[in-house]
């Protein structure tokens, strides 16, 4: 069972619809007791970093996630803003602290004669040594919708990236039981669905590093 964390923001139902399409059992809940019974968690996200963290704290879900993921090592997938929350901090709306599972800070894309936010499809380059490399198409694409991206991360945490103007955008990051996608896998066609399926069926099942 996959628990989709409902903190009042995010593309909850599109993520659940994608899970249903794949034949994966899932539930949407804001109740820590229900979510605690799930095998894996998804933290979706659309909106501003500060609002996400404020809502998590207001509902007590921040401590639930810190306990389940940080202490109990339950696998989690962060999507878009949900991925950004996995890092130490963000510059959006001033300095904001994140959940801190991954090293790095979320910073804005600026200028360089590119459209901001980045909205649309982009090439996704998978690290050759990662098991996802053999699961996706030869030239995968991913659907992005963002104006901030992760910087200062541990290079070992980078699973896949996209190039947008001068920026190397971390598309997939992961360490141990934590993984995130800056793009929306539920909107990224067959390759996106394969990434969701990999998370549900294969990622971190033995609680060993999936880097």
Question: What is the arithmetic mean of pLDDT?
Answer: 94
* Major β-sheet annotation: 8 strands, mixed
Radius of gyration: 16 Å
Low-confidence stretches: none
Instruction: Indicate the percent of residues in helices.
Output: 25-40%
Shape field? globular
What is the CA-CA span between the terminal residues? 23 Å
What strand order characterises the main sheet?
2-1-3-4-14-13-12-9
Number of strands: 14
The SS-based structural class is alpha/beta
Beta-strand content bin:
25-35%
Q: Tally the helices: what do you get?
A: 6
Following the backbone from N to C, one meets helices and strands in this order, namely: EHEHEHHEHEEEEEEEEEEH
